[in-house]
Design goal:
The protein has 329 residues and is mainly alpha-helical. It has 2 domains: 88 residues, Alpha-Beta Plaits, CATH 3.30.70; 224 residues, Rhomboid-like (Rhomboid-like fold), CATH 1.20.1540. It is 55% helix and 6% strand. It has 13 helices and 3 strands. It has a 3-stranded antiparallel beta sheet with strand order 1-3-2. α5 runs antiparallel to α8. It is rod-shaped, with a radius of gyration of 31 Å.
């Protein structure tokens, strides 16, 4: 910081400093002693321009350009402060939000557990259900029969029903619209789904709150499970399906739209993550048909593709609906 000049009254020093600020020259007036006020310029590279302004001001202190200098400087400072606040809203704080987007395979891992209690609760529930049901292989009559969309035992007693997938739900067991998300086939299935939930769901809960994510996850769970049940009904066969992947793809679809069209919350979604999830999505669909079904691993040929597709579409639609509603007709 360099001293530009001094004045014998505060008023002139303040007016010149304000004029310089309005010209985007960082300056300030300070008390320099008895009956003396100094004007300082922070950036030495701006001194030549500031000196020209000083000379003009001393020669023409009552020039009209200086009349509103303080008001203009105050307005400029207000706008700059507003811009700084807006910028800070999009800054991802390492200590309480999400980490480097390059971390975790580009998936933005690293949320503070204190900021996503619902995500952690769902993860714990998925682990407990998977362990206590032996990854869905528990003997008939156990816990898992109460979690499937349709209980195998109920279907066996009603084999003549045209739509066996709906037997339990039509009896009023509406929890089955959600509970299949906690059943997983093996450790790989469970861990991959948990990572996706933690990565995407944690961001949303962190920024929008627990209740918002709860509503979003509930809609995605119900619609993705319904989509898979509808597919089984159209194909006229009984199907057991489970896992968080329908919800996971729904959250992915939600962030895919938000990061592109309305990212005020500062969500992170790397191109690598998007490529991997979309590649997996289409490989699983292709794995249900020749010739891919003969070359892909069996685990990719028996996937709840309808749950993935419905989740992805519903998640994207929920993210895009507010954007459409805000657009003028």
């Amino acid at each position: 910081m360099r001293q530009l000049g001094t004045f014998d009254n505060e008023r002139d020093a303040e007016r010149l400093a304000a004029w310089l600020v309005a010209q985007r020259i960082d300056a300030q007036a300070e008390d320099a002693g008895p009956s003396e006020w100094a004007v300082w310029v922070r950036d030495e590279d701006q001194l030549p321009k500031a000196r020209e302004a000083l000379e003009h001001f001393r020669a023409n202190p009552h020039d009209a350009r200086y009349a509103n200098a303080e008001r203009d400087a105050a307005e400029l400072r207000r706008r700059e402060e507003a811009q700084r606040r807006d910028a800070q809203k999009n800054v991802v704080q390492m200590r309480n939000r999400w980490g480097n987007p390059a971390a975790g395979m580009g998936m933005g891992m690293g949320a503070s557990p204190r900021r996503c209690p619902l995500v952690l609760t769902l993860i714990v529930a998925a682990f407990l259900v998977s362990i206590f049901t032996s990854f869905g292989e528990e003997q008939s009559g156990g816990l898992v029969d109460h979690l499937w969309f349709a209980a195998p035992a109920a279907v066996r007693t009603e084999m003549q029903v045209r739509a066996p997938m709906w037997t339990n739900v039509l009896r009023g067991e509406v929890w089955r619209l959600v509970t299949p998300i906690f059943i997983h086939g093996d450790w790989i299935h469970l861990i991959m789904n948990v990572l996706v939930l933690y990565t995407f769901g944690g961001q949303i809960e962190n920024r929008r709150g627990t209740l918002y994510l709860a509503g979003l996850a509930l809609v995605l769970a119900v619609t993705s499970n319904l989509g898979q049940a509808v597919e089984a009904t159209l194909r006229e066969h009984f199907s057991r399906f489970g896992g968080l992947s329908g919800v996971g793809y729904g959250l992915f679809g939600y962030l895919l739209v938000k990061t592109k069209y309305d990212n005020r919350e500062g969500y992170l979604l790397s191109p690598v993550t998007s490529f991997i999830l979309l590649l997996f999505f289409f490989l699983c669909i292709g794995g249900a048909f020749p010739p891919l079904n003969s070359v892909l691993p069996e685990s990719l040929t028996h996937v709840a593709n309808s749950a993935h597709a419905v989740g992805l579409i519903v998640g994207a639609a929920l993210a895009y609906a507010p954007i459409i509603l805000k657009k003028p007709a």
